[in-house]
Write a structure and sequence with these properties.
The protein has 126 residues and is mainly β. The strands form two sheets. Strands 2, 4, 5, 6, 9, 10 and 11 form a seven-stranded mixed beta sheet that branches. The radius of gyration is 13 Å and the shape is globular.
Length: 126
C-alpha cells in the first residue's frame, strides 16, 4: 500500500494558479503511475490527469488539457498538478491516486487505482 499526502490547495480567484503536490511513501515511487481526480460538491469524483511511471506519458480530462500540467519528480517521490487559468467550475476536492504501472496504460478509471490520498480543497472564486 502506498501512503499519499496532498498539499497546495486553497482559495484563488478565477484566472489564478495553484500547484498541488502529492508526496508518496511506502512503495517504489518510480514503479507507479500517478493520477489526479477531483470531486465537486454534489457530483461524482472524476478523472483529471495521469502520468506514467517515467513521466514520459500523460493523459488529461479534455476541459483541463490546455490549462493543467501533471509532472513528477521521482527523486522526491512527488507528483504535481500545475493548474493555470483556473475557473469556478474547477472548484473541488482534488485527490491523488497511485497504481502499479501496468496495462491499461494511463487509465482514467478510478477502480484501477490502488491507493488514494485524503484530498485537498481547491476553491476558485468568480
Amino acid at each position: 500500500q502506498v501512503q499519499l499526502v496532498e498539499s497546495g490547495g486553497g482559495l484563488v480567484q478565477a484566472g489564478g494558479s495553484l500547484r498541488l503536490s502529492c508526496a508518496a511513501s511506502g512503495r517504489t515511487f518510480s514503479l507507479l503511475d500517478m493520477g489526479w481526480f477531483r470531486q465537486a460538491p454534489g457530483k461524482e469524483r472524476e478523472f483529471v490527469a495521469v502520468i506514467n511511471w517515467s513521466g514520459q506519458a500523460t493523459n488529461y480530462l479534455d476541459p483541463v488539457k490546455e490549462r493543467f500540467t501533471i509532472s513528477r519528480d521521482n527523486a522526491k517521490n512527488t507528483v504535481y498538478l500545475q493548474m493555470n487559468s483556473l475557473k469556478p467550475e474547477d472548484t473541488a476536492v482534488y485527490y491523488c491516486a497511485a497504481r502499479s504501472s501496468r496495462l491499461p496504460a494511463l487509465t482514467t478509471m478510478q477502480g484501477q487505482y490502488d491507493s488514494w490520498g485524503q484530498g485537498t480543497q481547491v476553491t476558485v472564486s468568480s
